[in-house]
Predict the 3D structure of the following.
Amino acid sequence: MDTPNLLVVEGDITVQRVDAIVNAANDRLAAGGGVCGAIFAAAGPGLAEACDAVAPCPTGEARTTPGYGLPAPWIIHAVGPIWRGGTAGEPDLLASAYRAALDAAVRVGARSIAFPAISTGIYGYPLEAAAGIAVRACAAAPEGIDEVRFVCFDPTTADVLRGALDELRR
């Protein structure tokens, strides 16, 4: 199995020209803050109805909707865990959310996918630990995924993800 091209990009996930973007979603697939709010705002009004049709989504799983007003034709809504100190299965649930998003991408024929740093915002997952899980899960992407972008809205997140990629490549 070939490893997909993994790269870190600073910027806005809603403008990425990829086959699918990932929304760091809540289990109700409702509009939220941060990346989730930005995706709902950019996609337009059809997204809420589409999410209602496939909700709920348990932690560690993913659901797919059309991209509506986004350049990406697909939005994959992945639900990561809320950080509870690391003893409530959070690492396995976070890895599962990334794997579920990658599997969903393959099901819709997506070859390129853009991820935010799932669970590291209001869900409180420590960034360094989350970055390691993210890059390991994406390096093991299923056949058919050619490119994975980690799209970071700030330089700190980008630097941590670049460090995790460097560590993976050693």
